[in-house]
Amino acid sequence: MLWALRDIVKKYRPKSLTETKGFKEERIVQAKIPMISFVRLGNCSLSKSEILNKLLRAIDGSKLRLQIEQMTSIAHELGVDVDENCPESQNARQNANAITAEIEDILKFKETQLPMQGQIWKAVTSLEKEECRLRKENLRSKQNSYGISESMNSFLSAISGSERCYFLKWLRTNLDNLSREKLSWLREQYKEKSKAFNNSEIKEIDKQLSNSSLGTEHFFREMGQIYEASVTLPESDLSRQQLQHLPRLCAQLLIDGFPLELVDGDASNVPLRWVSDVLAQLNKLVSPNNKILVVTVLGVQSTGKSTLLNTMFGVQFAVSSGRCTRVKVSEDMKTNLNCDFLVIVDTEGLKSPELAQLDDCHEHDNELATLVVGLSDITIINIAMENSTEMKDILQIVVHAFLRMKEIGKKPKCQFVHQNVSDVSAHEKNLRDRKLLLQQLNEMTQAAAKMERKEENKSFTDVMDYDPDTGNWYIPGLWNGSPPMAPVNAGYSESVYELKKNVIQLLKNCESSANDILEFRGWITSLWSAVKHENFIFSFRNSLVADAYTRLCTEYNKWEWEFKKAMYTWSTNAETKISNVGVVGGNIVIDEVFTSLKTEAQTELCKWETTLLHNLTEYFKQTEGHVHLVERYREEFFNSAKILRREIESSVISQLTATAEIKKGMETVDRVKEDHTKHLEERVCALVEECRKKKCSMMDQELDLEFNKMWETTVTNLKTSVCLQKTKTYLH
């Protein structure tokens, strides 16, 4: 029993933490708790309440506290077998302890022992969207330079042996204990710093809280990155050849019931080569061309998604242990569903507090939602009543994304599960709410279709297969009362069982034929490729925000064009004024006109900038067109208007300056031309007068000779004069 009890984690509040409203979270086998033995010797005449009071008094009076783990030695002395004392379990425990014993600081351990999934992998993720092949190759080379750490070598060696199931459970237990201790300490620090309002330290602790989770998924993630980096090496490279067995090893673990991470929750990326090769090996292991159907669950964080799947299908997805997206091969369903395997996909919680502070949190959630819905034959939308609005935002983006991505070729089925609704009449009472939900989703679909010019999609059901009468399920809470002592609600299991029967029936009636594993692999690749390059729509909270933003951009572009057009017209007229300035006064007149026009330009720029800012202010005051949804972009557009004014100002002043300089240059050329013409005329007249004084007739050849001689002398002198003027100009 000890082996089974190790998975039970309880949160409770001891009396010492009542005033501070703190709590403890630990595994039940490691908690120091009172031990009570019940021995029945005959009929009992005491009432239940009296027995309970006597027990509570006995507990308060006794200081003896034991850990269930500590009872193993006593059990051994009494001849009781302890299940986890078998050699396989103990060897696996030693291997797990060898890895976790060296962990003193989780952050440093991840940096030194699991380096490939850190900043380099996140950088690769961003470059994949930008298609920067050369920079990606450089980052992969950097990953290869790390080699395989000592901890990863121990991990790979342990999961390659026959004791891997024991090893992974021991490792998960040890890592959860370490993370729990670290997170508990950080929460206490956060509480203390919050009282002191020390924002810088709070921000640092907040960052550590996000990065201090460490589980087996991080080791598998590192394993995938080691493989992805290795395939960039030449095929003849020894390091690459030594790692070719990793996909088959992971596929075997998948068959054994361990989940495979599809999407890296930290980097928001799919390691496509790793996932593809694992699925290819899985296809070989389970015999080729096996048909599969896919069921996914999608919902906001902490709404009971993993618990729902665990209850429905008997799988063991981690509950409350961090963020990850996983897939698991379920039992053979060939007879009932006309397929060989059922693939169950669990997703990380959307709208998680850890991601809410990031600028791209909407993009992360929307990409994840679109991917899992696109992969599934049936999507279970898990909704808690307090966050149904956030879930509708996600669905709107999914619908919008499906309209935009041509690669999507199927129509997923949807089932809405409303958690924590115990009233048996909930289905009837919530008829109006269901109609309202569908109406809102229809409006969002129409808005998205209009933006994409696909007006033939007029309702939510045109994009997703959903029936408001049969597609909604109301499930009571898992617990009767408040944990940790609350019993499990039997109504929860019954409601989930009814949901499961409906899901199985929907899969039976599924019109589309099941894909095989290789087709599923290709579907992941094409769908993720489409999601990666659809950046615009994913950055918005929902389709209405995207539509409102597009409208704002359209209006702003119109005002920007009017501003530019008006200043272009004014600039053209100003340049004409400068070009038409007379010679009177020379450069002094041009400078006066130029200064006057610069002042006039500033006045004109201020007028149009004021008009643009006024238009923006009035636009944001509107009550129509969902303007309130883009309020967060107000400052961005006001800053754009100011930047636009500076850009136009710089352009206009540059054009005026260039025109004035050209005008000054042309006037200088005209003066030089006039002076040279006058000088040449004087020289010709002097030559004529000189010939006249000689009173001798000259032949045409002699006249030509004298003229050419005078011309060359005069032109040479003029050239020298021009050069001297240029030199003086440069010196000044």
Automatic annotation (TrEMBL):
Domain VLIG-type G: 289-528
Name of the protein this chain belongs to: VLIG-type G domain-containing protein
Family, per entry: Belongs to the TRAFAC class dynamin-like GTPase superfamily. Very large inducible GTPase (VLIG) family.
Organism: Neogobius melanostomus
PANTHER family for this protein: GTP-BINDING (PTHR14819), UP-REGULATOR OF CELL PROLIFERATION-LIKE (PTHR14819:SF9)
Gene3D superfamilies assigned to the protein according to its UniProt record, in alphabetical order: P-loop containing nucleotide triphosphate hydrolases (3.40.50.300)
Pfam families, sorted: URGCP (PF25496), URGCP_9th (PF25974), URGCP_GTPase (PF25683)
GO MF annotation: an example: GTP binding
SUPFAM superfamilies to which the protein is assigned, alphabetical: P-loop containing nucleoside triphosphate hydrolases (SSF52540)
PROSITE patterns recorded: G_VLIG
InterPro entries reported in the protein's UniProt record: G_VLIG_dom (IPR030383), GVIN1_dom (IPR058641), P-loop_NTPase (IPR027417), URGCP (IPR057365), VLIG_GTPase (IPR052986)
